[in-house]
Amino acid sequence: MVCELRREFKFPLKQLLAISELSKATYYYWVNRFERPNKDEMIEQVMLEIRQEHTNAGYRPMVELLKQRGIYVNHKKVQRLMKKLGLRVTTFWHKSRKYNSYKGKVGTVAKNKLHRRFNTSIPHQKITTDTTEFKYYDKGVQKKLYLNPYLDLFNNEVISYEISKQPTYQAIATALQEALELTSDCLYRRTFHSDQGWAYQMKNYVFKLKSQKIIQSMSRKGNCHDNSVMENFFGLLKQEIYYGHVFNSFEELEQAITKWIHYYNTKRIKKKLNWMSPIQYRLTYSK
Questions:
Q1: Using CA atoms, how far apart are residues 69 and 187, in angstroms rounded to an integer?
Q2: Which of 83, 92, 95, 282 is deepest in the core (most CB within 10 A)?
Q3: Which CATH superfamily is domain 126-286 in?
Q4: Residue ranges covered by each domain of the chain
């Protein structure tokens, strides 16, 4: 205000400072600060562009994404600039009730052969799966959507998935068939892991795995840590597109999930994968 009055009405600076009770040193500090060129303007612009695509990237991924664009900035500066630009990481502590597909022993319950050995250096060797539910509204009536993904533990890539309005065996079988075909190139014996949900105990499901000499593995009853990779994946998905949002149709929610899975596979970088996306990591391995 002092600068504007001085510039527009030519008031003496001394008089304006007395009226505003502002010291001369403070006045010149702010004048110099506002007139100083922003040397970080280019970096800030790139960071804003990155956030358009990676909507919930924290400072660590931001450092790596800047590097990929030829901009090398230390993490402390990135933290400071993100704070300045208001680029916060959204966190929701609310968790919805976990979908439980366990209906007792309705078929064959496999032993836990994976034993939480979630790492592998071989693509398509260890696959894990689970089902999760989402809620949406259709003309004001709350309904549910079910997601059945298959995840490759080599790079945590979603290799197949099916979305349905009901928790059906057909939805799981469709995703399973795609996963079986995609992983058939593995030269080592494959392991498919799941919880003890009713669909994974069914004769048809068990037969499909046995017919291809695949080891079937199941988490122990009531032990979510035996399939923590899938739990973490579902948590990440819901954190970034579901919690805090209201979806008003099946199609709207389905599209959001489909779009996010594509982003997750192709662009979402992870420290575990040397700051590459799952598909980038797999392609690098295959070279």
A1: 37
A2: 282
A3: Ribonuclease H-like superfamily/Ribonuclease H (3.30.420.10)
A4: 2-35, 41-85, 126-286
pLDDT 10s digit of each residue in the chain, 287 long? 545 545 555 567 666 666 666 666 665 666 666 656 778 889 999 999 999 999 889 999 999 999 999 999 999 999 999 998 889 887 765 556 678 887 888 889 999 999 999 999 999 999 999 999 999 999 899 999 999 999 999 999 999 999 999 999 999 999 999 999 999 999 999 999 999 999 999 999 999 999 999 999 999 988 889 999 999 999 999 999 999 899 999 999 999 999 999 999 999 999 999 999 999 999 998 76
- The pairs formed by 268-273 with CB atoms below 8 angstroms and a separation of 24 or more are 268/54, 269/61, 269/64, 269/65, 270/156, 271/60, 272/156, 273/155, 273/156
Q: How many residues does the chain have?
A: 287
pTM: 0.83
